[in-house]
Amino acid sequence: MNLTDAKYGDFGLVRDMMAATDVVESFDTQQMRDVAAQIALTGRLFMTGEGSSRIFPAKQAIWQARRHGLALATHTESARQAQAYDLTGWAVFALSNSGRTAEVIQLFDQLAEYNHPHRYSLTAFEDTKLESLATQGFVLSCGKEGAVAATKSVIEQALFYDLLLDHIAGEAALAAKLPTLARKMRDTLTMSIDDGITQRIADAPMIYWAGRNTGVAEELTLKTNEITRKSADFLEGTYAVHGVEEVMNARDVVIWIEPFEDQEEKFEEVLVNGVGLSIIAMSSRDTRFPTIKLPASVDLAGYICMAGGWNLLVETGIHLGIDLDKPQRARKVGNEFVG
């Protein structure tokens, strides 16, 4: 996709996606040092929110923290379920673009009642209800989005958590990586997608996203609903060959993000040969399946995979003649707090 062709550039969603690369390039890596120090002292970080404000930002942060052996306990859960948890001793970070998400407001109301000392918020606007309940609040710089589906805000939210971990680790390494990441995301967003792949996905009654539990495939599952109006499901890890094949059919598609190389043969045996469906890989290496080739990245591959998924979904949505900016039922603020 690109902004010079009217079939793409007329959509606010596409403009938001392309603007995400500018968000990466200009991201302020000097912020949050004091909060990082406070969270490091607690030793425990609980990340919450609803929908896109939680899935990729929080799960990618957990993946990064555990992969690098960071001495910080990390966990995520939706804000509604978290109301049943004892969060004493945890630093609680809540993300909500609107700052008016009902479940998050209810959780922070509850925490404020007993003076929980570590309540942090990140919103897209200043002076929100959520920020008023936080001990310290931050505001995104990406600006208002032009479509219902959240995109550039999701990227900046994830960068906030990556920066937080960077400060806690004492590495100051993120800043040097961002220019290259922005370039690779731009290349991924504008690369051509094979028409045959787009057609196969457009024809599928069910689209499955498979891959690691890093938030990428799960977030793209949600974006599939919002952008293509198709049914979709997230199959974590190798779940795709552990029983769900019983209800799959040959018209379905599995999009596998960065496949486990030693599991490719099993996926082919069970899903391609057994069910008769198509597997499409999205990977930085060649696979035995039709593959959307992504630029390689060691630490920040999730952002590039997200860009690849966005590109594929936009091509599919346009092929289907869908208004990418205006879903029929989905809203910008899912469950808004009314006080």
Question: What labels would you give this structure?
Answer:
single chain, globular, 45% helix, alpha/beta, 2 domains, Rossmann fold, 339 residues, five-stranded parallel beta sheet, 15% strand
Structure description:
The protein is α/β, with parallel strands linked by helices and 339 residues long. Helix content is 45%, strand content 15%. It contains 13 helices and 10 strands. The chain has a 5-stranded parallel beta sheet, sandwiched between helices. Helix 6 links the parallel strand 3 and strand 4. Helix 2 packs parallel to helix 8, helix 2 runs antiparallel to helix 9 and helix 3 crosses helix 8.
The biggest beta sheet is recorded as:
5 strands, parallel
- Flag low-confidence runs: none
**Radius of gyration, Cα only, in angstroms?**
20 Å
Proportion of helical residues? 40-55%
Please report the total strand number as a whole number: 10
Q: End-to-end distance, in Å? A: 42 Å
Fold-level CATH name of the largest domain: Rossmann fold
H and E string: HHHEHEHEHEHEHHHEHEEHEEH
Kindly name the structural category.
alpha/beta
Total helices: the number is 13
Which CATH first-tier class of the largest domain would you pick? Answer: Alpha Beta
In what order do the strands lie side by side in the largest sheet?
2-1-3-4-5
Q: In percent, how much strand structure appears in the residues?
A: 15-25%
Brief summary of the model shown:
It is built from 13 helices and ten strands. The chain has helices at 6-9, 12-26, 33-42, 55-67, 79-82, 102-113, 129-133, 152-169, 174-190, 195-203, 216-228, 264-275, 301-319; strands spanning 44-49, 73-78, 91-95, 119-123, 136-139, 206-211, 231-236, 253-257, 278-283, 291-293. The mean pLDDT is 95.
